[in-house]
Amino acid sequence: MKLHTLKPQTLLTQSNPMAFSTGIRLLRCYHHHFTFTATPSRFSGLRKTSSELRLLSSVTPPPRKQLRPVSARRKEEEVGDEGNGSVILTDRGENEGGNGGERVVLTELHKEATEAYMSYAMSVLLGRALPDVRDGLKPVHRRILYAMHELGISSKKPYKKCARVVGEVLGKFHPHGDTAVYDSLVRMAQDFSLRSPLIRGHGNFGSIDADPPAAMRYTECRLEALTESMLLADLEQNTVDFVPNFDNSQKEPSLLPARVPNLLLNGASGIAVGMATNIPPHNLGELVDALSALIHNPEATLQELLEYMPGPDFPTGGIIMGNIGILEAYRTGRGRVVIRGKTDIELLDSKTKRAAIIIQEVPYQTNKASLVEKIADLVENKILEGVSDIRDESDRSGMRIVIELKRGSDPAIVLNNLYRLTALQSSFSCNMVGILNGQPKLMGLKELLQAFLDFRCSVVERRAKFKLSQAQERNHIVEGIIVGLDNLDEVINTIRKASSNALAAASLRKEFELSEKQAEAILDISLRRLTALERNKFVEEGKSLRTQISKLEELLSSKKQILQLIEEEAIEIKNKFFTPRRSMLEDTDSGELEDIDVIPNEEMLLAISEKGYVKRMKPDTFNLQNRGTIGKSVGKLRVNDAMSDFLVCRAHDKVLYFSDKGTVYSSPAYKIPECSRTAAGTPLVQILSLSDGERITSIIPVSEFAGDQYLVMLTVNGYIKKVSLNYFASIRCTGIIAIQLVPGDELKWVKCCSNNDFVAMASQNGMVILTPCANIRALGRNTRGSVAMRLKEGDKVASMDIIPDALQKELDKTLEVNQRQRRSMKGPWLLFVSESGCGKRVPVSRFRTSPLNRVGLIGYKFSSEDRLAAVFVVGFSLGEDGESDEQVVLVSQSGTVNRIKVRDISIQSRYARGVILMRLEHAGKIQSASLISAADADPEDENATAVAA
């Protein structure tokens, strides 16, 4: 017998698909019958002396057995050269010339491997890893519950050792290891793994800290009442098919007659071959409501079902962030649900304002001990800041993880960092794959519910048929017994005359036209049941049976009644075992954390230079100083550069950058790099997409784009317009047009206002106009506006500020008083700052309101060399003495900054020259000024002395 190597060729499997493996076994056992011959064209690299090789083996064939030779040969005339390397096994009889003794088996290696692998994969899919859509159980879970049911370990019986149950399952139904069975049993008893546990455990069944359960010889178990009502009821009424067990010694159910979709109730997870499943658990009450909605309206949409079952309900609670992932999972079967642990903030010390974060619930399938350990590692490695201590105070009453914060730490920021860095926020990837009609299938919510309804209809129909058959059989016997009792004397005489039971039965069948079962029932009846009272009982039983038969026949003939019965049984389980929802739903777009979520919303100083350098500093960078001092340097400036603007905002604010060309750009405030006072800053071209020669002239921080807010824009040539703030809520990276400018004009000032506010404008020569914002017509972005002030020759607009609505009533009062009261020095005031460093306060009551396009009133009397640098409305916050609590920050062209109290600036008339605010012997002129509220000042800096540049 010889085996020759062949050219690659395509092989077709014929009668025996295992021929290849059989041939390999023959090769191993009978090596001396086979020789390999190398084909020169395929193995040209071999030496000619090695053209014939032998396969060596240590196995010796049994000498007493004579096998028919099996040879492999090349069939060049039948197969081409384009094959994949195949072997033809030829089985010849003793007479090679005979036709009946030869058998040729052709097989493909890849096809044989594919078939074997698919057979193995389907075995894993159906027999181990994936749950059935109909009862929501894997085979091991189904076998455990059935074994406990057979042992009689019901919810009302005493507990029995888990080892007893595991042994029963292994011996009768599940030929696998005891560890797999016990682990499955333990999981069905854990209230943190299953939303509605199916087994009641007694002993140590593990914990949410991933502590292992005690050995099965120590723990005890019994069925839950829910399991008996939901899965095991009607099991003996031919509701499901029973199949042979592994050794064909007895039967086991292929399914359990579930009354509620257990697959959605408790979920499932499993990894099979080539696919996996991960189905979230749900609330029993919501699930039954959704099932009822589908029964009443088979065409119900997913949105209608979500009205009853809005999302998963995890046994460990938590907060589900948004419904986008839920919608996708319910629609397609795949989706991502983001879950956050439930937390609370407790104040530990009201004086120091120290707080603590209390974790009360963790996301589903999160190890609490690992979570605490991870937080501790982050704190130790200084990745998570602001935490001083961590304690796990959980007990049997509930979970409680205490995270104490350091003094001054923002709990919201620390909590957002916990969400971002730890499993306190995690995602559940839904992959709703289940076995349907013997095949794994990915299904959405409605498809899962519909598949269960179809199965439940089959169960109810089979149960009704079983009960109908039993009722009909019993009714048949009762009718025969009643016939016998009606003819009692004749029956007794017939029985007495018969010589045997068989003859008696035959005589009764012949004389009274009874069936065999009826005759046997008459013979089996006892004498005590021959009384009239007993006869009446049989008559009543007959009526009851006929009524039952009628109802069952009506049920089987009506699909509507079957669905109604399914709904009633599901609602009965809901009313008996319903528990409130544990997982809360939060209506957000997504649970993803952005940078803004982990950045404190602290106040900050923004400084911008004429050449477009910006930097962010802490508000306490500049200490409070006295009036008339030199001030502190704002930092290094480029050659020929000067400070342009200086303002206060918060880190979460959206900063609008307005350029001299009328274009507006946008960027979050926290994206500006923070630096020290002496740093030069960051070029704006690295943050904004500025064009060549474009300069930022005004910066507006916006916390919220309210519908009743507007931006008032003022140009150098005196054009003003009002635009709704909503137009700037969404700005592309290349900017959008804010105002249409005429040639030679520049956008210089932008302020935020409402219709109830007033606008105060001043020219460089000190002329002032006060006008209500309501008088300025709201326009679109791409417009020029109207003339604000009638400027004299050589004069230009110098500044603009807003008198807010909070001061309107006070302003109205002061404007309506008599002449004597109008000379009062009470606030609010207009604070004037000149380029030479002088300034004064003038009561707003000294100015009357006027329409636009007017010359205005004199507000400051300047010398020929001096001009107005800025004007502010002050008096928003007043101290107990009625004086202003604000502070003003002055910035010179050379970058020197002076921060002084507004109350130190004297109140003077409109024609006064003012007092010295900042000495500018070698510091040029005042470039910009900014107001800071009293809340921005550090109390410890109240008596700070002047600091030189």
UniProtKB/TrEMBL annotation:
What keywords sit in the KW lines?
A: ATP-binding, DNA-binding, Isomerase, Nucleotide-binding, Topoisomerase
The record places domain Topo IIA-type catalytic at: 130-598
Signal peptide region: none
Superkingdom in the source lineage? Eukaryota
Q: Which reaction does it catalyse?
A: ATP-dependent breakage, passage and rejoining of double-stranded DNA
Please name the catalytic residues of this protein.
Y218 (o-(5'-phospho-dna)-tyrosine intermediate)
GO molecular function terms attached to this record: ATP binding; DNA binding; DNA topoisomerase type II (double strand cut, ATP-hydrolyzing) activity
Annotated transmembrane regions: none
For this UniProt entry, what's an example GO CC term?
Answer: chromosome
UniProt-annotated stretches for the region Disordered: 55-101
**Is DNA-binding one of the keywords UniProt gives this record?**
yes
Subcellular compartments: Mitochondrion; Plastid, Chloroplast
One Pfam family in the UniProt entry: DNA_topoisoIV
Instruction: For this entry, list what GO says about its biological process.
Output: DNA topological change
Give, as one word, the top-level EC class.
Answer: isomerase
Task: Quote the EC number.
Answer: 5.6.2.2
Membership in a protein family? Belongs to the type II topoisomerase GyrA/ParC subunit family.
Name the record gives this protein: DNA gyrase subunit A, chloroplastic/mitochondrial
Native species: Nicotiana tabacum (Common tobacco)
Source species taxonomy: Eukaryota, Viridiplantae, Streptophyta, Embryophyta, Tracheophyta
In the UniProt record, the gene name given for this protein reads LOC107779491
